[in-house]
């Protein structure tokens, strides 16, 4: 039986060749940095710029061989040098209709030289996602006011499902159009600043800071005594005229079956409003209005059966 044996010298040469090939496969010649934000605002042309920084870390790279590309939607596109810097590359991608997210990765092909040999190499990034934000908050039209004030917010991409929060308190939010929302300042402590955010299916967006100013409220009569089915007018007066959109009086009660009354809003430009209260089921309790005077105003209510 005849056996072929590999000489020791040949084994060493094969090992060196394998080691050299491994060096080409595992070397770290570049740092690839994605400069594209994870979210981009929508634009009418639906063209978005994706940007990559290619930082060279090794001297073995053959000059002129670096070829950055982006792989997006299964297509391979060549990137061009950006005016922002020699190591920055970019590509303008037109998002197909109906899409609001892009998934992509960067691939850099190059040649590396070692011991007089040039070999083709590649470096690449992980898959990255960038979402197109169709909602953009532009302005909070007032940054302070009393409880109940109606405050406008301008932007784009608003929906009827959006809700504005003042700190952690959901407000009465009014959808006016895709470009405008408004909210009524909730009954929170006065003389404090609060963060205002917009929450919806598109995520949470900071709007700004709002300061709640103190206010007083006069109620006439100061208490109500009614029979079931009887009606009485009650008047609410604030010291300053209500602003645009009016001033909502957020009235609650601990006897909801005893009191029948409409929502109370002081009209814009006026400082008082009168509404009719009707007696319901017999009971006694109070009407409560938070955010006025020392913090809460109460109006005693007594309803007796006919």
CATH topology category name of the largest domain: Immunoglobulin-like
As a whole number of angstroms, the C-alpha radius of gyration is: 34 Å
Estimate the global geometry from the Cα principal axes. rod-shaped
Order of helices and strands: HEEEEEEEEEEEEEEEEEEEEEEEEEEEEE
pLDDT averaged residue by residue: 87
Structural class: mainly beta
Architecture of the largest domain, CATH level 2? Answer: Sandwich
Q: Which percent range fits the helix content?
A: under 10%
Number of helical segments with 4 or more residues:
1
Number of domains: 3
Characterize the biggest β-sheet.
6 strands, mixed
N-C termini distance: 122 Å
CATH top-level class of the largest domain: Mainly Beta
DSSP strand count? 29
CATH superfamily label of the largest domain: Immunoglobulins
List the helices and strands and how they pair.
Blueprint: H1 8-26, E1 30-34, E2 39-41, E3 47-56, E4 67-72, E5 75-78, E6 80-81, E7 88-94, E8 101-114, E9 117-124, E10 128-133, E11 136-140, E12 144-146, E13 150-156, E14 163-166, E15 169-170, E16 172-177, E17 180-184, E18 192-200, E19 203-213, E20 218-220, E21 224-227, E22 231-237, E23 247-249, E24 251-253, E25 259-260, E26 264-266, E27 272-279, E28 283-290, E29 296-304
Parallel strand pairs: 2-10, 12-19, 21-29
Antiparallel strand pairs: 1-3, 3-7, 4-5, 4-8, 6-7, 8-9, 8-10, 11-13, 13-17, 14-15, 14-18, 16-17, 18-19, 20-22, 22-27, 23-26, 24-28, 25-27, 28-29
């Amino acid at each position: 039986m005849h056996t072929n044996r590999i000489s020791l010298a040949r084994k060493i040469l094969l090992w060196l060749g394998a080691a050299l090939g491994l060096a080409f496969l595992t070397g770290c010649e570049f740092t690839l940095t994605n400069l594209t934000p994870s979210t981009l605002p929508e634009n009418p042309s639906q063209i978005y710029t994706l940007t990559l920084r290619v930082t060279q870390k090794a001297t073995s790279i053959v000059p002129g061989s670096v070829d950055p590309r982006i792989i997006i939607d299964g297509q391979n596109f060549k990137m061009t040098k950006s005016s922002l810097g020699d190591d920055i590359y970019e590509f303008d991608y037109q998002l197909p209709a109906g899409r609001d997210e892009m998934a992509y990765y960067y691939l850099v092909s190059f040649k590396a030289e070692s011991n007089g040999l040039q070999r083709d190499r590649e470096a690449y990034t992980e898959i990255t996602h960038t979402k197109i934000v169709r909602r953009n908050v532009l302005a909070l039209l007032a940054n302070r006011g009393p409880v109940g004030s109606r405050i406008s917010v301008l932007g784009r991409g608003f929906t009827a499902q959006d809700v504005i929060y003042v700190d952690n308190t959901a407000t009465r939010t009014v959808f006016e159009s895709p470009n405008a929302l408004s909210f009524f300042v909730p009954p929170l402590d006065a003389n404090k600043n609060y963060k205002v955010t917009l929450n919806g299916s598109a995520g949470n967006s900071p709007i700004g800071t709002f300061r709640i100013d103190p206010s007083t409220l006069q109620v006439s009569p100061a208490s109500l005594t009614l029979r079931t089915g009887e009606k009485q007018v009650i008047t609410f007066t604030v010291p300053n005229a209500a602003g645009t959109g009016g001033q909502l009086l957020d009235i609650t009660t601990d006897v909801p079956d005893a009191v029948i009354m409409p929502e109370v809003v002081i009209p814009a430009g006026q400082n008082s409003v009168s509404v009719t209260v009707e007696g319901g089921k017999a009971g006694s309790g109070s009407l409560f209005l938070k955010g006025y005077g020392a913090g809460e105003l109460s109006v005693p209510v007594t309803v007796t059966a006919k």
